[in-house]
Design a protein that fits this description.
Blueprint (H helix, E strand, L loop, with lengths): L13 H5 L1 H13 L2 H20 L2 H37 L1
Length: 94
């Protein structure tokens, strides 16, 4: 495999969809292999560093609590979408 080729994406099976850890790992594999998302994540990371320097400790703690809630909501959303799409694909193949 060359340095530019991507590893194969995981198979999405019933087992993966029904195990939150395996489903999370599969979603991570898909999202981390996307160049546009990788660039966006870097921009977010850089923004976090700049924001940390601009906020006092209490403001930063509040921001981080909101950020954690946002990340949790995004993770749950991705999981729900993956399950719905998987089940729809299974029905379409019947």
């Amino acid at each position: 495999m060359s340095s530019k080729s991507r590893p194969p994406l995981p198979a999405i099976t019933d087992t993966v969809v029904n195990d939150p850890y395996q489903l999370g790992a599969a979603i991570d594999a898909v999202t981390t292999s996307d160049k546009q998302l990788t660039r966006l994540h870097k921009q977010i990371r850089d923004g976090h560093h700049r924001l940390r320097e601009a906020l006092n400790d209490d403001q930063w703690a509040l921001f981080m609590r909101v950020e954690e809630q946002t990340n949790t909501a995004t993770a749950i959303t991705m999981s729900v979408i993956a399950k719905v799409f998987f089940r729809a694909g299974k029905r379409a193949r019947r």
